[in-house]
Predict the structure.
Amino acid sequence: MKKMKKITFAIIALFTFTFIGCKNDTKKEEDSSKEVVKEVVEEKVEVKELGIVLEPKSGSTAEGKVIITEENGEVTLAASFYGLTPGTHAIHIHEKADCSAADGTSSGGHWNPTFAPHGKWGAEAGYHKGDIGNFEADENGQGTISITTNEWCIGCGDENKDILGKALIVHQGADDFTTQPTGDAGGRVSCGGIIK
């Protein structure tokens, strides 16, 4: 009889241990799955994207398409142009998303919220937040430019970073990066508002 009690006790103990062990394993799996879900939720990143069309100005045939995206605190501007004269052209962000004037001057001057001198992007001597730079148009009048920066945002409300409500302007010539305040880039041959 004692032997039977020992066996029964051993079976109950084994069953209890197995049940508790399984329960703990299930809890661990639940906790683990919660952590994975939490990580996925925390890694979800908001991506903003704008598509912009630039139209000819100043009697030119220059047009362009621009995609601006913001992700992880960085803005990327990727632009392609056609109908330009072959050679070097400057592109800048200007103060207002107003391209109504035939020569594009309704967009105002370069966007310069920090009142820095005009210059080459990233220069120690200073540069406007709108001083994107130069790009080349080939013999067919086509060209591209791309820039990624954490100095801009799309609709964040920070007047020193927010490019929403500004304009992209392509100029007739190259930016010399020294002439104040425009870089002596010539007339405005294409304009597009940065708007939603």
User: Anything to note?
Assistant: The helical segments are 2-43. Confidence is low (pLDDT under 50) at residues 7-20. The beta strands are 48-56, 63-71, 74-82, 87-94, 131-137, 143-149, 167-171, 188-193.
